[in-house]
């Protein structure tokens, strides 16, 4: 069974009034950096913070009275879990979400708060999925697949339908790819409405399952990524077939590019976006020649990033920009030397965050010491001024902070 434009238009009518029309915004500063005109479809604006509500709601609204009465079962460690829980509860449908045992407590708590019963089963997503299927069969419930279901795909495709209604003259659409439900639905809508448009998927480099499957290669995926939402080891059967027909290219982005995209969206566009949601921007920023001069639509698929991860990304971004630095400074181990160094730093307008005094465990002469100083600066030019000032004053200075 394939998915058609008519299916997506039917899904749009079905979910109309249940979900907000998410904004499609032009991003001038990001456009300037990318060398193309960037437009962002903000799927972060759904109640649960991700596009998954579209497919889950379309599926749930399609159920008959008996299916609603029986309830639904889903498997997810992330956005799909919350989407099913949210709308099943709102529609009066009992929902059970199976999550792997490693799922962070905050995600479990959030899903339960939306009205679902959460069961922690298995050490992997595959284990959890197998248990969810067994549970659905045993209790006579409907299993709601996170991506490989025509109704789910059609629901996700409404994002593409809306995007092209809001910005009809796009040259390319860039979509994050996990299991393929989002890009499958968007590609069907986009190619039907504008056959000449380019549809490009983006996977994280550790999980290139769709790209490998399309190339007929063995699927090999592993690694820790900040793009958990697209860290999928196997695309769906339906989604793979759609991608083979309608997706023009799959690009891969590494962890540094994903981090920088999350950072740019937060600091430039003032958007909180999860790693998977930032994948499209990461690809556009990394492939300047590929998108130069085009009008490019990027689906920002979700904003559910862990606060600790976000804080690390922001600080590491400041380090990359030279706005937070760690300097190792040599000085004579005599009274007043440290005061002189801190005065010089203050005189050039930097702010000292931390100071670590090294005497015993560094390879320095016995009458010398080294201090590691963490500073806030105005950027790389200011950093150069600081190091020049200290070195000229007789305090050899080495930059120790470098995030590649």
UniProtKB/TrEMBL annotation:
The UniProt entry's sequence similarity note says: Belongs to the serine/threonine dehydratase family.
Enumerate the spans annotated as ACT domain. Answer: 326-404
The reaction(s) this protein catalyses? L-serine = pyruvate + NH4(+)
Requisite cofactors: pyridoxal 5'-phosphate
Which PANTHER family does the record match to this protein?
L-THREONINE DEHYDRATASE CATABOLIC TDCB, THREONINE DEHYDRATASE, MITOCHONDRIAL-RELATED
InterPro entries reported for this sequence? ACT-like_dom_sf, ACT_dom, ACT_ThrD-II-like, Ser/Thr_Dehydratase, Thr_deHydtase_catblc, TrpB-like_PALP, TrpB-like_PALP_sf
Its keywords, alphabetically, are:
Lyase, Pyridoxal phosphate
What's a Gene Ontology MF term here? threonine deaminase activity
Name used for this protein in its record: Threonine ammonia-lyase
| E.C. no | 4.3.1.19
Taxonomically, which superkingdom?
A: Bacteria
Q: Which Pfam families match?
A: ACT_4, PALP
Q: Which CDD domains match?
A: ACT_ThrD-II-like (cd04886), Thr-dehyd (cd01562)
């Amino acid at each position: 069974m394939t998915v058609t434009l008519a299916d997506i238009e039917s899904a749009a009518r079905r979910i109309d009034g249940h979900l907000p029309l998410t904004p499609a915004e032009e991003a001038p500063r990001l456009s300037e950096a990318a060398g193309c005109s960037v437009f962002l479809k903000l799927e972060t604006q759904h109640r649960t913070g991700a596009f998954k509500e579209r497919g889950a709601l379309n599926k749930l609204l399609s159920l008959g009275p008996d299916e609603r009465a029986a309830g639904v079962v889903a498997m997810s460690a992330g956005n799909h879990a919350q989407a099913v829980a949210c709308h099943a509860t709102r529609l009066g449908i009992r929902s059970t979400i199976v999550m792997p045992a490693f799922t962070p407590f905050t995600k479990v708590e959030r899903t339960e708060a939306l009205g679902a019963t959460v069961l922690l089963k298995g050490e992997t997503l595959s284990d959890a999925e197998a248990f969810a299927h067994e549970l659905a069969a045993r209790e006579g419930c409907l299993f709601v697949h996170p991506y490989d279901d025509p109704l789910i795909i059609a629901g996700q495709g409404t994002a593409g339908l809306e995007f092209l209604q809001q910005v009809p003259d796009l040259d390319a659409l860039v979509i994050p790819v996990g299991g393929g439900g989002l890009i499958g639905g968007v590609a069907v809508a986009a190619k039907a409405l504008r056959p000449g448009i380019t549809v490009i998927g983006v996977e994280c480099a550790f999980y290139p399952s769709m790209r490998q499957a399309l190339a007929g290669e063995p699927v090999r995926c592993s690694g820790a990524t900040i793009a958990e939402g697209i860290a999928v080891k196997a695309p769906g059967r339906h989604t793979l077939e759609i991608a083979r027909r309608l997706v023009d290219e799959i690009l891969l982005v590494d962890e540094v590019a994903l981090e920088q995209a999350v950072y740019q969206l937060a600091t430039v566009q003032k958007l909180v976006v999860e790693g998977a949601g930032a994948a499209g921007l990461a690809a556009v920023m990394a492939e300047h020649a590929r998108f130069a001069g085009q009008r490019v639509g990027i689906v920002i698929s979700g904003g559910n990033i862990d606060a600790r991860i976000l804080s690390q990304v922001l600080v590491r971004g400041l380090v990359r920009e030279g706005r937070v630095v760690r300097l190792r400074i040599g000085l004579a181990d005599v009274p007043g030397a440290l005061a002189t160094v801190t005065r010089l730093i203050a005189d050039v307008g930097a702010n000292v965050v931390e100071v670590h005094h090294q005497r015993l465990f560094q390879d320095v002469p016995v009458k010398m010491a080294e201090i590691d100083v963490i500073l806030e600066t105005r950027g790389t030019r200011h950093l150069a001024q600081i190091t020049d000032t200290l070195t000229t004053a007789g305090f050899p200075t080495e930059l120790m902070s470098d995030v590649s």
